[in-house]
Every structure is written in C-alpha cells, then in structure tokens.
Specification:
The protein is α/β, with parallel strands linked by helices and about 260 residues long. It has 11 helices and 8 strands. The chain has one domain: NAD(P)-binding Rossmann-like Domain (Rossmann fold), CATH 3.40.50. Strand 1, helix 4 and strand 2 form a beta-alpha-beta unit.
Length: about 260
C-alpha cells in the first residue's frame, strides 16, 4: 500500500472534499489507497471514472473492448473527435491521466468473459459496472458476489436509468432482480431506443458517489434498493429489493 501521508499539492487538490467530515485527511488517504474497476468506458463509465479520478482514487481499472465511434460522443465524455477508432480503454486512460496524473489508470482492452472476469475483478476493492449489455452485467455481478467485492451497477436508456448497490452476503444481488438474459429484442437498447446524454451523466455520477461511499466505509442507503431515475419527470424513486432465497448466485454463495 502506498504511504498515507498527503503532500501539500494533494492537500490543495482535494481540499474541498476533505472539508467534509466524512472524508477528512484519513478518508482522503483511504481513497488514495483504494482500487476501483470501471467496467465500460462509455456513457456511464465516463462520468463515473472522471469523478473517481478527480476524487483521488489511487488505482482505476478500465475494462472495455470497443473503439470510439462518432455516435458515442454525445454522451461518452471521456472521448473526443481525436480519439475516433482508438480503443476506449486507452482513450479513457489518457483523459483521466490528464485530469489527475496521480491516479494509476490500468486499461483492460478486452471483453470480459467467464475465462477472465474473476481474475480481473479480484485485483480491485470495488467494481463500478456501466456496460451496455445484460450478459456482461450478470457476469460481473456473479464474479463480484463470488469474490465478495462490492458492486455498483447501473443501466440507462432513453430518459431513464437504474442503479443498484450490491454488498455480497448482505443485500440482493443483480441476479435477484434480473434472473437471466431475455430473448433478443425484448429489452430496449440505446442503439434502437436512443439515449439523452445527460441522463447517462446523472446515473454515472450517482455510481461514482456510491463507489466513493463504499471506499470511505460509509453507510449506503442505496444498498439493497433499486434507484430508478426518470429524467423526463425529474423523479428519483427507490424500490426495496429483497434477496431471493432461490437466487443461483448469492444464495449459492451462502451455502
């Protein structure tokens, strides 16, 4: 672990958040020692990663297998026109290092699958999931539960978003909510239904808030609740989600 003493420059950089009694010097030093994996460097991962880097999280992993496309840029604010056709993990790394050179940004330019997900997740303390496909979300959820890693998972489409904080062994996991991948064409996707860019910004920022609370050891009322954001109605609703005793992921972990 890195030394926990903060330099004068670090004290200046993080002074505003260190004024919060929940952070202070000890909390800031803890963030510097924290390791967070962001899955997906897109609409959700962009604001989440930017705020986590800005907050001084010591190590940020970025897992994404895609390259930057022009249709990404209205919402994926880690990237710009100069990054077109560049791997998102590498484009995001450059942007985050420019924002905060103190952060150790680790790019994982690959597609997460059963053969590699646990090995990568095991390297981190907290996982922020912001991919745009359900199989990846379930895969990451299952790995986090198996390894006991707290997970902040979210999705957006149209004007709407949802977020769930998973504390393995304590709260419902994502598979308690979504048991399996539905048939193709059942769920709306950004490519077909559209997405308003700031909606992804709101939900991705909420993911960063919850991830920082986990790293700071703070209570999270969002744990075990599904947060539903309706951008058109300007409403944020919390729905309690109970653990499913028949869940093949988190019930199996308790046996």
């Amino acid at each position: 672990m890195r030394g926990l003493t903060l330099s004068d420059e670090q004290l200046r950089r993080y002074s505003r958040q260190m004024l919060l009694p929940e952070v202070g010097g000890a909390g800031q030093a803890g963030l510097r020692a924290a390791r967070i994996l962001v899955v997906g460097a897109g609409g959700l991962g962009s604001p989440a990663a930017l705020y986590l880097a800005g907050a001084g999280v010591g190590t940020l992993g970025l897992a994404d297998s895609e390259a930057v496309e022009l249709s990404n840029l209205h919402r994926q604010i880690l990237h710009g026109v100069k990054d077109l056709d560049r791997p998102k993990a590498h484009s995001a790394q450059a942007r985050l290092e420019a924002l905060n050179p103190e952060v150790d940004v680790v790019p994982h330019h690959l597609r997460l699958g059963p053969e590699n997900v646990r090995g990568i997740v095991a390297e981190y303390d907290v996982v922020v999931e912001g991919s745009d496909n359900l199989p990846t979300k379930l895969l990451v959820n299952d790995a986090c539960v198996a390894l006991g890693r707290p997970l902040v998972i979210a999705g957006v489409v149209g004007w709407d978003g949802q977020l769930l904080v998973v504390r393995p062994g304590e709260t419902a996991c994502y598979r308690c909510v979504v048991r399996r991948v539905p048939p193709p064409g059942t769920l709306a996707a950004c490519a077909s239904a559209g997405i308003l860019g700031p909606v992804a910004g709101v939900v991705g920022s909420l993911e960063a808030v919850e991830a920082l609370k986990l790293c700071l050891g703070l209570a999270s009322p969002a744990a075990g609740r599904l947060l539903l954001y309706d951008g058109r109605a300007a409403e944020l609703t919390a729905v309690r989600v109970r653990r499913d005793p028949a869940c093949p992921t988190c019930a199996e972990r308790d046996r």
